[in-house]
Specification:
This protein is 35% helix and 19% strand. By secondary structure, it is an alpha+beta fold. It has 2 domains: 87 residues; 88 residues, Immunoglobulin-like (Sandwich), CATH 2.60.40. α2 runs antiparallel to α3.
Length: 210
């Protein structure tokens, strides 16, 4: 299973939030027995916060040089937090209690998608004989959509159906026998469903192929 860790990339944090996030980390790690030898020293981080906060204020309605200085002091703070975050991850060794005590945001564990809900299947005639147009209502987090089809009467075993996999919710079946009534049903797939071979299928739809 993938381990949780402190998130140490601050490049996407807004200017107005970075100093607050950094200060929270310094406050939480000061005197924290889980981290007895922070690298870099927390006083260096605090100095970087102070310089960056002052640069933000000066850059508002300031000169291009003031903006450049703000960007430079931000980079210094980001790099310091990155190094500190690496120290936190190495020291905590994926211990969630220790990680949360650092003040850093923590990565989330990936959630299993599981067996998805049954979709709704719509079937229309194509432009040519032997064609049916398939439309499937979107199922969130589906990887693909599987359509089973067979001449009526419907098989009792899903393995006896013909099948076609669609990467999108709309597609076409071709090469069907004209004048034959088909039964069709669809399901949304996921990694877990494919592994277990368990699916929730739509209500069956019958259509006479032109």
């Amino acid at each position: 299973m993938k381990a949780q860790k402190a998130l140490i990339d601050f490049s996407g944090v807004k200017d107005g939030d970075l100093a607050d996030d950094a200060q929270k980390i310094v406050d939480k790690m000061t005197g924290n027995l889980n981290y007895t030898a922070p690298q870099p020293n927390l006083s260096l981080i605090q100095s970087a916060i102070t310089a960056y906060s002052a640069a933000i204020i000066k850059s508002k309605d300031g000169t291009k040089e003031d903006t450049a200085n703000k960007n430079a002091t931000r980079l210094v703070l980001e790099n310091a937090l990155y190094t500190l975050g690496n120290y936190v991850n190495m020291t905590a060794e994926s211990n969630l209690v220790k990680l949360e005590s650092s003040g850093f945001s923590i990565s989330k564990l990936p959630q299993a998608i599981g067996i998805l809900d049954a979709p709704t299947l719509h079937v229309q005639y194509g432009k040519n004989p032997g064609e049916l147009i398939i439309e499937i209502d979107v199922v969130p987090r589906a990887t693909e959509y599987l359509v089973l089809f067979a001449p009526v009467p419907a098989p009792t075993d899903d393995k006896e159906y013909y099948s076609q996999l669609f990467s999108k919710t709309k597609g076409m079946l071709t090469g069907l026998q004209s004048g034959v009534r088909y039964v069709l049903k669809a399901t949304a797939t996921s990694a877990e469903a494919n592994k277990m071979g368990v699916y929730n299928f739509s209500d069956p739809v019958e259509k006479l192929v032109p």
